[in-house]
């Protein structure tokens, strides 16, 4: 084999290699051994010491090596594969199978001395993971370049808990689901082979017959999924929103498929995906799939305990979220005072829930575990009446978006209640209440009139029958007169009556929201923190309607768990895409689906020398490509 320095090394594997050596006594200067098939950017990727890169069937294996001294020079000895370079990122094997260094050196010396027949040196066996044999010369480039660049850290995280081959399959499926909303198992192989994903992650099989086996294998490795989630939880320290979403899943054998509280509306069984979402990073942290009939009040505490979502509360107005591992997000000098406070609220290490997610027993359990939380109470909660939280009077200073009054109170067991009334929302709810009552009155009046009309017709027919039998004609009332007479009588018995007392009680709750927490917070900070919970609703809407990760269509619980895990990864990618569009100023000019359509027009064409170049692009498409830097 000819190397980059013009020499032939008899002991190099026939597969293309680029070796590194940390031994200064190596006379062969293995640092300089290169090959045209291993690009400079691949060789420059940081990797462990005493390794080299070997090009095998479209993939870049990282091989560990040692050396043995023979005839006054160091001879390299391969110990085995320790990882792989995928898309300019080194991904380590979870459990590399390496030879014993001493035994490998002894075997190499024996071969060099002729004590062991050397055999045929090194034609590699056919790679069982070999990829596409008939790759197209035109590949979709835009979405793969963007999404792979945004999410390649996920592959590194996956490889820490799954075997590298399986980690790449999971990652590729997540990328394709993020790229092609609603993609089916039949279409996934085509999307992989006709896009640049086959270049970034070469040599994986995603055939229709292969995917069910992959999903089953992933679903059975629940401990690996849980460890992956826990690792992500440790990376996020901002405000956390927790909420669930129901997905249709009809199955007679699945434990997870069950009728939920929405059965009367949907008419089908569901599963429930519970998500934790970091408000500051704007992406999901972790998720877990539960049986569809499980109430949030029982699943949320279990979810938080399993993944360690404690969220130790640290409120420091001067730090603005400079926790370890995150970029400082100090308020910009051009921000208004309210925007600065909102930014500080996003930095609270606090868990926020939807109504009904936290029962009183659940709150006590979280108190014992040291979990920081902020949860709304139901409007009929006894605590509201007991502590008079339905009469907030003090104006919420510093909040200028609307007129809000508040009340803060400490309970007998040491918790804090925060009550807020928004005058604008209260007015809307009062108008809605009155409109609803007016509709009830109109419907009742219409029903009584129909009933009176029917009764009047019956009276008239009876009178006509009697007159025909008697042969006389009496002085009868008209139908209209009979209807009005009967309607008046029906109104007295069954007519609509406005319940003023009920209205006064309901009026106290208009625009009112009451939170409970173990944390002593500034009222403005508490109000703004919970106001951020809406962002998880936006994320779940994108999950179902933009990425189209809706109803489940697999056949056992293992595959359900795996499918929702991969959907979780796709949702992370979708959130990062949206964050990038906001950062680049694109999101206000076009929607996420419109942007995806433009990005899908970007292709690369293979050249005669094996390199890839951009195909033709419209001017507006090129502007987007240049702005994104892909």
Would you mind describing this structure in some detail?
This protein is an alpha+beta fold and 630 residues long. Helices cover 42% and strands 17% of the residues. The chain contains 21 helices and 17 strands. It has helices at 40-43, 101-112, 142-159, 164-179, 185-193, 197-200, 211-220, 222-235, 263-266, 296-307, 337-346, 360-369, 382-386, 423-470, 479-494, 500-507, 523-531, 534-546, 557-583, 592-599, 619-628, and strands at 16-19, 51-56, 59-70, 73-85, 90-92, 138-140, 240-248, 270-278, 283-291, 351-353, 373-376, 394-395, 404-410, 416-422, 512-517, 603-606, 612-614. The strands form three sheets. A nine-stranded mixed sheet has the order 9-8-7-10-11-15-14-13-12, sandwiched between helices. Strands 1-2-3-4-5 form a five-stranded antiparallel sheet. The chain is elongated, with a radius of gyration of 34 Å. It starts with 15 loop residues before the first strand and ends with a helix.
